[in-house]
Amino acid sequence: MAARQTILTDNSAETKVWISLDNHGSAVTVDASALANAKATGDKLHVRRIDWSVDKEINISSTGSGTTDMINLAGGTAGSFNTHIIKNIATQPGNATDADIVVTPGSGCDGFVYLELLKDPSGW
Known about the structure:
Blueprint: E1 2-10, E2 14-24, E3 28-30, E4 45-54, E5 58-63, E6 67-73, E7 77-81, E8 101-105, E9 109-119
Antiparallel strand pairs: 1-2, 2-9, 3-8, 4-7, 4-9, 5-6, 5-8
């Protein structure tokens, strides 16, 4: 019943994150304020690429003052998405403690999600 988030790359332009799910069902956050070159406010991450293999559905959303759905991954699937950038359109509250990307698996999910995230140049 665990999820492990591993930051594979974190530089001024992007971050690459591997999320391993082992019978997990709670949200996992990628917090922009904890990444390299973060500023006090306005940090945003946009999704450039997703690879996954999961046995339950996954919702990926962006957060700020509220939560905005970005993409849903079907359960029992494996795949890759890199057709276009999915922009984080959530309104930032001016508080860098809020997570920018939230990965929410269905209950008891096994598998992985790999994210390539672009850092918004206006926030970094």
